[in-house]
Amino acid sequence: MNNIKNIAKHMRYFLLFVFMAWSSFLYASENKTDTVSIHINNQVYELTVSVDSAKVECGKKPAAYVKLTKDGSAAGESAFPMSGNCPIEEDIGIEVSGKEFIIRIPYCDGFLFRIGYARFGYSEKYDDFVLTEYREENIDRLNTEQESKSVGYSILSKKPIVFSMFSPETIKRIIRQNLIREHEIIQACTTQYPIFGYSSKENKLMWIEIPAEFVIQNNSPQRIYVFNPSYYGYAYEAGYRLKENPTKGWSLVLFYRIEKDSIGSYLRNSESIFPKESNRYIINSRIFVYKNPEFQKLFGDTVASMFQRHKESHWQVTPSALSTNQRKFLRQLISGDSLRVRLYSDSLDRHHSVNIPLDVGKRLPTF
């Protein structure tokens, strides 16, 4: 019995890819047009999908156009651009079910084939077709034997999304709003002091580690994963070293899990957060200062004094050890810095990046 199911599953994917290959071949040099009709209140609505397969090198980008007419008059149109590199994107289609129609919108996303289904139902109140459902079927391009995953998205909109408002940007907004609801990221106030890094060879302060703590709360019904943190500031060592006048940029940074106020080892791979739970993390980004003449001048006497008292090259610095101007300079130095983390949502089967502007007051609460 299991063998029969496996054969049926393999045949289903085989036929899917044969169909996609045939579609790409069939419409490689001509337009594809499909039309469906819906009769409502003695009026005829026609929905037409036309695929323009013109090649980019001919000066025209390929696109699919979805048009709605009401008794022959235009009632809305959307254009779905195509890359020309995805074997299923031309398989856009429509179907009717009672007073509803469904637009099938396939596209490639990394290693996945995503097939979106946008369902529109007729609304007597608005005398228009309103988006009532959006879901996607995700198929692994590299492992077609794996079961496809169906993901439904909540339509979060204060006003109904009528067909004339529908576009690829609408889909992106719906997905983005659903992703945002999956988690909450809050910067926490740190109790850790900055650390100064001194080089006796250069006879100057090279960098400062200024910690930032944050909490990630998982609001979704399934696990989320956090990985690949990066920091925006004077922390990109190669760029800082090579540029005569360094500017802020993005740099990968290590992050650590905090358990009961104890900092563990840094996380090598992705970190999972279980449903309705939260994890606390800390980063110690190195802010490079050795090319900053204003900093070296302002902190010169302080560095000389610390060098006499400490044999090691890393010094923890408390607010009382610095002047008002020095504390003010540190705050200005990291003002505008931010953190970016990558998240993966199990329930939505998506990776996405989250930017977190860092609050200076929570990084230097007593400075």
User: Could you tell me the radius of gyration in angstroms?
Assistant: 28 Å
**Strand fraction:** 35-45%
Question: What best-fitting shape do the alpha-carbon axes yield?
Answer: elongated
Query: Could you tell me the mean pLDDT?
Result: 87
Sequence stretches where pLDDT stays below 50 over 5 or more residues:
2-15, 17-30
Q: Helices and strands, in N-to-C order?
A: HEEEEEEEEEHEEEEHEEEEEHEHEEH
How many strand units?
21
Total helices: the number is: 6
The oligomeric state of the chains shown is single chain
- Tell me roughly what share of residues is in helical segments: 10-25%
Report the span from N to C terminus.
70 Å
Structural class: alpha+beta
For the largest beta-sheet, the strand count, sense and barrel status come to: 7 strands, antiparallel
What would you note in describing this structure?
With 367 residues, the protein is an alpha+beta fold. 21% of the residues lie in helices and 45% in strands. The chain contains six helices and 21 strands. Strands 10, 11, 12, 15, 16, 18 and 19 form a seven-stranded antiparallel β-sheet that branches. β5 and β6 form a beta hairpin. The N terminus is likely disordered.
How would you concisely characterize the structure shown here?
By secondary structure, the chain is α+β, with helices and mostly antiparallel strands.
